[in-house]
Structure formats: structure tokens, C-alpha cells
């Protein structure tokens, strides 16, 4: 009976141990740097987005944001090219298809 309990505990511990070694995802690892459009911590080998400059980011970089796909990223760039640089992060809501909720979801990542 004691061996059975020990075996069950050991099996449980061994089956759960790989969960502690899960690799952190790195959505910014494929993003190309463009005039410091995407800021990442320099001391980390696993890049994590800390900010995206809405006035210099590429469509690929903008599409890393929540609720922004390739079409909305292209719309941001088109708006920026036609109207000049954004004066504030809130100006993103002037882009067709981008509402205030999308801006709020990403505000912590956005700079101008």
C-alpha cells in the first residue's frame, strides 16, 4: 500500500514537472526595428513588446497590437501618410475601423 501511494505521488510529480518549463511566447521576435518603432528590453533574450511608436511603426509591427490586423494596420499607415504624424495616441481613433476601445486596449503599448 505504501509503495502504491509513493508510486502515484511520484508519477503525479513527474507528469506535472514539464509545466514549470513552459517557454514564454515572443510575439515581437519577428518584428523588424524601424526607427525605434518597437521598443523591447535590451537585457532580455526573449523579446517582449514594451512600446510601439504609432508614427514610425510598420504594418507588421502595428498588426502585433490587439484588435489590429493587416487591414487596420494598413489603414493606420495610410492615414499617417495622408494627414501627417499623429499628435496623440487618441488620434488613432480617427482612423476608419479603429475605435476608442481598440485604442484603450493598446494604450499601454503605444507612443507617438
Automatic annotation (TrEMBL):
Domain Helix-hairpin-helix DNA-binding motif class: 60-79, 90-109
InterPro entries, per database record: Competence_ComEA_HhH, Endo/Exo/Phosphatase_dom_1, Hlx-hairpin-Hlx_DNA-bd_motif, RuvA_2-like
A GO term, aspect molecular function: DNA binding
A single cellular component GO annotation: type II protein secretion system complex
Keywords: Signal
Signal sequence interval, chain numbering: 1-22
Source superkingdom: Bacteria
The keyword Translocase belongs to this UniProt entry's keyword annotation: no
Gene Ontology process terms (BP): DNA repair; protein secretion by the type II secretion system
Gene3D superfamilies: AF1531-like domain
Disordered: region residues: 22-43
Listed PANTHER family: ENDONUCLEASE/EXONUCLEASE/PHOSPHATASE FAMILY DOMAIN-CONTAINING PROTEIN 1, ENDONUCLEASE_EXONUCLEASE_PHOSPHATASE FAMILY DOMAIN-CONTAINING PROTEIN 1
NCBIfam families: competence protein ComEA helix-hairpin-helix repeat region
Record protein name field: Helix-hairpin-helix DNA-binding motif class 1 domain-containing protein
Species name: Oceanisphaera avium
Amino acid at each position: 500500500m505504501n509503495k502504491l501511494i509513493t508510486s502515484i505521488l511520484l508519477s503525479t510529480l513527474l507528469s506535472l514537472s514539464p509545466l514549470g518549463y513552459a517557454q514564454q511566447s515572443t510575439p515581437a521576435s519577428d518584428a523588424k526595428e524601424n526607427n525605434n518603432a518597437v521598443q523591447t528590453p535590451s537585457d532580455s533574450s526573449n523579446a517582449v513588446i514594451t512600446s510601439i511608436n504609432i508614427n514610425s511603426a510598420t504594418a507588421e509591427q502595428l498588426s502585433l497590437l490587439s484588435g489590429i490586423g493587416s487591414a487596420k494596420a494598413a489603414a493606420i499607415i495610410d492615414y499617417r501618410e495622408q494627414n501627417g504624424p499623429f499628435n496623440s495616441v487618441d488620434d488613432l481613433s480617427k482612423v476608419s475601423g479603429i475605435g476608442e476601445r481598440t485604442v484603450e486596449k493598446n494604450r499601454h503599448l503605444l507612443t507617438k
